[in-house]
Design goal:
The structure holds two protein chains of two kinds. By secondary structure, chain A is mainly α. Chain A has one domain. The model of chain A has no long low-confidence stretch (mean pLDDT 88). In chain A, helix 1 packs antiparallel against helix 2. Chain A is built from two helices and no strands. In chain A, 51% of the residues lie in helices and 0% in strands. By secondary structure, chain B is mainly α. In chain B, helix 3 packs antiparallel against helix 12 and helix 5 packs antiparallel against helix 14. In chain B, strand 1 and strand 2 form a beta hairpin. In chain B, 76% of the residues lie in helices and 2% in strands. A two-stranded antiparallel ribbon of chain B has the order 1-2. Classes of the chains: A mainly alpha, B mainly alpha. Chains A and B meet through helix 1 and helix 2 of A and helix 5, helix 10, helix 11, helix 13 and helix 14 of B.
Chain lengths: 59, 496
């Protein structure tokens, strides 16, 4: 599961993958809505890892 | 922009400023503990902040007022390149989720208050502890100065001139931080963040509707960049891609090495508080992405600004009624108070624990620590204020940039020890020194641009100098660890 945490790094640091104007969405060029879309996606990925991890032992 | 005082905006501004001042002093009694008797109380708010308080506090001090001014200013000036703040503040959270709960556990189990405490606890090395503490102190000072500059920009937009308003604001801030400690910015952060959310949500809905929609906003910016030429545009030039990605990664790794962000981590109630925040804090990143677009809206609104930093205040003055502009300016100014307070507390904690206690008075009592920290927080703020008043603004910007590069060099000492005990203190110290010297030297040689270049196989690669310095730092630390291991196989004893 922890490998999910690497996806935002891959998706955002490999710039040639998203450095385009088209296709636009609601007036936003691809470059912008693609990166903004990674915000909720990253939250979701972290939440998935959070759910599957073994809880802290209670002190 | 006219220099006349906007009385309605000023009245709204004063109202909110008084409100947070009252909250700041009242905070000492909130979730009350003996604020003056223990550094955990003054400097970490009693280590009891749950998910929501931590969300407001870290959101409030990581996404600073200066960000609200500077990110749209950079986007206005150069376009897509200024957007690196967005990937930066996304990828920081998987890192926070994976690493910061481990750091919290170590700090909680041993009563550590600062990063340098953790490093000393792990490696039992006074020199490495001092290196981390000094780096944190020096990197934080210009950061506080930047918050003052951000506040100065909006105070100027209201029409107030001279240094007096900002001095007055800072004296008030210094006094309630002194009396309430971390509880003050934690409580004020609620007000600040809610105000900023309102301002930005209104702006991103109302402004494009007045300017013809987001399509028109982007088109206006595109035309402006086409006329401007150079390394600007709605997407990156090929040569900008590597700098963009390395700036994002380097900044993300540096972000939670700063004393103010770590203070938020150490003040959390549990490791799980931090994990939940790694899921919830990206809401602020969405906000930041929308704030950045204000830079493009300035083109659609045909603004003329004397300085890029005036983009945001001018946009609000032109497009909104005075009372809402005043509300927005209050949000930004209060937005400067929260990080400035947390930064001065983080710096005061470092000085108290890792300089005063380690070198001047090892037998200091808990109450003594709290009073040293309180006085240090005043000194730090006076220093930052003097900095902004007596030195050119550009110095603060340059030093803040170098500060990011410096603080990143404490990463190996602080983070590697959470996963492995292989590295030796001597190696980490040498790596830190080499990273700082090479990075500063390279940035200096480039006219303080944060970029370095390297030639590989005839192609030149340009990248963020801080990340290059970090890689060099790690390589030197590893080689030196091997060498020291050969020379003296026995390690310094680490108290368990």
């Amino acid at each position: 599961m922890w490998v999910l945490l690497l996806l935002p790094f891959v998706g955002l640091l490999w710039v040639p993958f998203y450095n385009f104007q088209e296709p636009a969405l609601l007036g936003f060029p691809f470059f912008y809505w693609y990166q903004l879309a990674w915000v909720p996606i990253s939250s979701l990925l972290i939440w998935l890892v959070y759910r599957r991890r073994t809880p802290d032992e209670t002190p | 922009m006219s220099d006349q005082i906007d009385w309605i905006a000023l009245a709204v501004f004063l109202f909110f400023f008084l409100l947070v001042t009252v909250i700041g002093f009242f905070a000492a009694r909130w979730k009350s503990g003996p604020v003056s008797e223990h550094l955990d109380e003054w400097g970490l708010g009693g280590r009891q902040f749950g998910t929501w308080i931590t969300w407001f506090l870290v959101g409030g001090d990581f996404y600073t007022a200066y960000t609200v001014i500077a990110v749209p200013a950079l986007v206005y000036a150069v376009g897509a390149y200024g957007f690196f703040a967005l990937p930066y503040t996304i990828i920081v959270y998987p890192f926070v989720f994976a690493v910061m709960p481990l750091l919290w556990k170590v700090a909680h189990a041993n009563g550590h208050v600062t990063a340098a405490d953790v490093v000393h606890g792990t490696y039992n090395s006074r020199s490495l502890e001092l290196a981390v503490a000094i780096t944190g102190l020096i990197a934080t000072m210009p950061y506080i100065a930047l918050q003052l500059i951000g506040m100065g920009v909006v105070i100027k937009a209201i029409g107030l001139t001279g240094e007096l308003p900002i001095v007055a604001a800072f004296v008030v801030l210094a006094l309630y931080t002194y009396s309430s400690g971390l509880r003050a910015p934690a409580l004020i952060a609620f007000v600040k963040d809610i105000m900023i959310y309102i301002v930005v949500l209104v702006a991103v809905v109302v402004v494009p509707s007045k300017l013809g929609g987001y399509g028109a906003v982007f088109a206006a910016a595109n035309d402006a960049f086409a006329a401007k030429g150079g390394a600007t545009g709605l997407i990156l030039k090929p040569a900008q891609m590597l700098p963009y990605a390395t700036l994002a990664l380097g900044s993300a790794l540096a972000a939670f090495m700063y004393p103010h962000t770590l203070t938020g981590i150490f003040a959390s109630k549990s490791a799980d508080t931090i994990r939940k925040n790694a899921i919830l804090l990206p809401a602020y990143t969405l906000l930041l992405g929308l704030i950045a677009l204000l830079g493009y809206m300035a083109y659609a609104a045909h603004l003329n600004v004397a300085s890029n930093n005036d983009v945001v205040p001018t946009l609000f003055k032109v497009l909104f009624p005075s009372w809402f502009a005043g509300f927005a300016f209050s949000a930004i100014a209060i937005g400067a108070l929260v990080p400035a307070a947390v930064m001065s507390i983080g710096a005061a904690n470092l000085f108290t624990r890792n300089v005063w206690k380690s070198y001047i008075d090892p037998n200091i009592s808990h109450a003594g620590e709290a009073s040293v920290a309180k006085i240090t927080s005043l000194a730090v703020k006076v220093g930052a204020l003097a900095f902004t008043i007596f030195l050119p603004t550009q110095y603060a910007l340059d030093l803040q940039l170098l500060g990011g590069l410096w603080i990143l060099q404490t990463f190996p000492a602080l983070v590697f020890g959470l996963f492995t005990r292989w590295f030796r203190a001597e190696g980490l110290l040498l790596g830190w020194a080499v990273g700082i010297v090479w990075g500063s030297w390279t940035a200096w040689g480039n006219g303080l641009k944060p970029l370095a270049s390297i030639d590989l196989g005839g192609t030149s690669y340009v990248f963020y100098v801080g990340l290059g310095a970090l890689i060099l730092n790690i390589v030197v630390a590893a080689v030196a660890t091997v060498v020291v291991g050969l020379l003296s196989p026995r390690r310094a004893a680490v108290p368990s």
